[in-house]
Structures are given as C-alpha cells and as structure tokens.
Write a structure and sequence with these properties.
This protein has 403 residues and is an alpha/beta fold. The protein has helices spanning 6-17, 21-38, 49-54, 56-66, 75-85, 99-103, 110-124, 126-129, 132-149, 172-184, 196-208, 224-240, 255-265, 284-300, 317-327, 354-370, 375-391, 394-402, and strands at residues 2-3, 47-48, 163-168, 188-190, 243-247, 268-275, 306-310. It is elongated, with a radius of gyration of 28 Å.
Length: 403
C-alpha cells in the first residue's frame, strides 16, 4: 500500500484531470481509509511515496522480505536497472515537503492531516502498523468520516432500501399541499427548510445567468461542491428514513441535478410532478418559463415511477387516493411501455408557438395524471421537442409572436 502526501495527490489530480480540490482531497481520504480498514493485516505492508522513489532498492527489499519473495544476489545490477528505469523528470507533483512542513500547514483539513500523519507513523513502525491500536484509530476515523460527510463514494455505500420522494411544482403552496398528503401516508417530507434549498438557489442563479449549461451542469466541475453537499444530504436521509422526501418549489430549478445524484446513489426515487393548466397563462415570458420548467422536469423524471398531478385537482379525494397508491408503488425492472407513433406526430412547428405547446402539453399531462400508461405518450412528446423548447430565449419568442 502506497502512502503519498495528499497535497501532491491533489496537485496531480488538478494537473491531469482539472479535478476540484475538495473532491480530490476527499477521494484520497476515502481510498486511504478503505485500504487501511479493509486490507488483511497479516499480509500487507505500508510504503511511503518518498521511500519508494528515494530509497527504492531498500524499499523493494523490505517488500520482498515481508512477503517471502525471492531476492537477487546482485543488488548492484538491480540498482542499475532501477536508476535506468526511474526518471525524476516525470515526477510532476512531488513537492518534496518535509513531514514537519506538512504538519504546519493551515490549508489541510484536520481529519486529512491526522490520517496522513498516522499513516506515516505506521509506515515507519511495522509493529504499530500491525497493532490493534492502529486499527482502532482507522476504524474511528472511518466512522467519523461517515458521520461528518456521509458516504460520498460508492465504496462506502450500503444498500439504500428506503424510498425518496421529490415534489416538483412552480408554486410552493401547491407543493405544500402534496407534502401534506404524503405526510398523511407516513412519508417524512421536508420543504424549503431542506439543506438542498440553498444549493438550489445557488445553482438556479447560475443557470439563469447562463454561467452553467442546463443540459450538462450535473457533470460540471464548477458545481462539484454543491453536488457533494446534495449527495451527502440525500444519502444521510435516505439511510435514516424508510419513507422521506423533499417538497420544495426550488426543486424545479435543479431537477436534473436531483435526479442525477439519486441515480448515482442507487436511491429508489419517486417523483411527483404538479402540472398547471398552461393555457391559462397570458404573459408570454411567464408562459415560456413555465413550459420550459415543466419540459425539463418531465425529461429528467421520465424513468419511472413518477406521477403527474394537475394543480386544479390537488384538493380532490381522487388525488389523495392516487398519491396513496403512488407511495406504495414498487420499482420495476421490466421494460416500460413506449409510444409507437412516429416522431413527426409530436414535432412542433417552427418557430415554436408557445400557446400551441401549452394546449398540447396540458392535455398530455391531464391524460397522464388519470392513467399512468399515458406517460409513454407524454414522454415521447417531451423527448422529441426538448431541445427546441429549451433553446428558445425570450427575444426569439417575441419575434415568433410578431412574425
């Protein structure tokens, strides 16, 4: 097992993959903890990067001795091969930092610093490395990492058996109505007080000023810290609660991020989409934004199960029955029905007439809200027109009206 200065690892990640500093540091921490926690204590050796490249022959001999491997009688010939093989010019991220200098750093998190210093102590003292004291410290550090950050990486993932519910809607009062119905069915719902709310506000601002691309931002390194925060928040709650969820109008702004992170977690996610009667919206800009939000949401949640609820039906007994059944829905691995009509059936005219879109989309949502098998038709309409609808800006829409 090779132990390297975490700052050198971070710099290597930055140079090679432009990886975010926080992500690279936590990745080093997780992989080091896992290696030290899960490896067989009777068949392992811990070697520092400095020893491997600074005292290569001595270190290789230690490894051979530890594992009872054959060793050469001609160490001089082996040293010559080592000198010929190792090219110091390739060490692009070797700071050569002393242990004392590392310990004095103020830009390294205390838990990361403690792990590296413990590893260096163990690498220098094989008896300590093999001791119960060392293993206990590693177990404690691992438990503390999970408590502080959640299981950000799949290596730590325990199977998540709970159900996670997201409610998507333009109006918080409507979202709250759905939250109350879900709570009545034993789902622990949180609203605007969710930790995800501040993340959504930040990301939505950047999406609106086009700092981020709505189609790719969940994979953008610019948002890795926000994604990490969402990942940890969702995971902690999904592990703690059998039925839980977030009902926040801001969910609409980051639907791609929420669904993407949920898939990465392997969470059993159930999505409720509140659809307004779009034909009742007179303001052109408001209509365009409402349609684009709904199209984004439907495109992101098309993997089942999801449930469409019409806003004007929220207070009806039928909606309560529908949502109660939806809470009981189990995921299925069977292929979902697809709409067999040709794409041309759903293709919108250009330039796009958003009043026409409003009528068609509202009708399709009404059908899907009454019969989940109609979701296939709704999904088909969304997939055919997603790019064109999202690409329309305010001025383009104004031009299409004037024309």
């Amino acid at each position: 097992m090779l132990l390297r200065n975490p700052m050198d690892v971070v710099h290597s990640n930055e140079r090679a993959w432009h990886r975010d500093t926080t992500l690279a540091m936590r990745q080093w921490q997780v992989r080091t903890l896992l290696s030290l926690r899960d490896s067989d204590r009777t068949h392992r050796i811990l070697v520092t990067y400095e020893d491997l490249f600074g005292q290569t022959l001595t270190t290789l001999k230690r490894i051979a001795t530890q594992f009872d491997l054959p060793w050469t009688d001609d160490e001089a010939a082996l040293q010559a091969k080592i000198d010929d093989f190792i090219d110091p010019a390739l060490q692009k991220s070797d700071s050569g930092e002393s242990l004392a200098d590392f310990e004095a750093r103020t830009d390294v998190e205390p838990d990361v610093k403690a792990l590296y210093l413990l590893g260096r102590q163990a690498a220098a003292d094989p008896d300590f490395f093999a001791s119960e004291e060392f293993q206990q410290k590693i177990d404690e550090m691992t438990d503390q990492y999970l408590a502080d950050y959640g299981a950000l990486y799949r290596d730590f993932n325990a199977k998540i058996n709970s159900k996670t519910f997201f409610v998507f809607g333009e109006d918080q009062a409507q979202v709250d109505q759905v939250n109350d119905i879900l709570r009545a069915n034993q789902v622990k719902m949180v609203g605007t007080e969710a930790d995800s709310h501040a993340v959504a506000e930040d990301l939505s601002e950047r999406l609106n000023n086009e700092t981020l691309n709505v189609k790719t931002y969940p994979l953008d390194y610019l948002v890795v810290e926000q994604k990490e925060e969402l990942n940890n928040y969702l995971r902690k709650n999904a592990k703690r609660e059998a039925l839980w969820g977030i009902g926040d109008a801001k969910n609409n702004e980051i639907v791609e991020m929420l669904t993407n992170v949920s898939r990465e977690l392997g969470a059993d996610t159930h999505n409720v989409v509140i659809a307004d009667d779009l034909t009742a919206i007179d303001d052109p800009r408001e209509l365009r934004i409402a349609i684009q939000h709904l199209i984004r949401t439907l495109h992101a949640v098309e993997r089942p199960p999801y449930q469409v609820i019409m806003a004007d039906q929220l207070a009806t007994p039928a909606t309560q029955v529908t949502l109660k059944a939806f809470v009981a829905t189990e995921p299925t691995k069977a292929d979902q029905p697809t709409d067999s009509k040709p794409d041309e059936t759903f293709k919108l005219r250009t330039p796009i007439d958003f009043q026409e879109v409003a009528g068609t989309l509202t009708a399709l949502c009404e059908q899907a809200s009454q019969d989940s098998t109609k979701q296939a038709t709704l999904n088909h309409f969304v997939s055919v027109n997603y790019d064109e609808i999202l690409n329309v800006k305010g001025d383009q829409y104004a031009n299409s009206v004037r024309n």
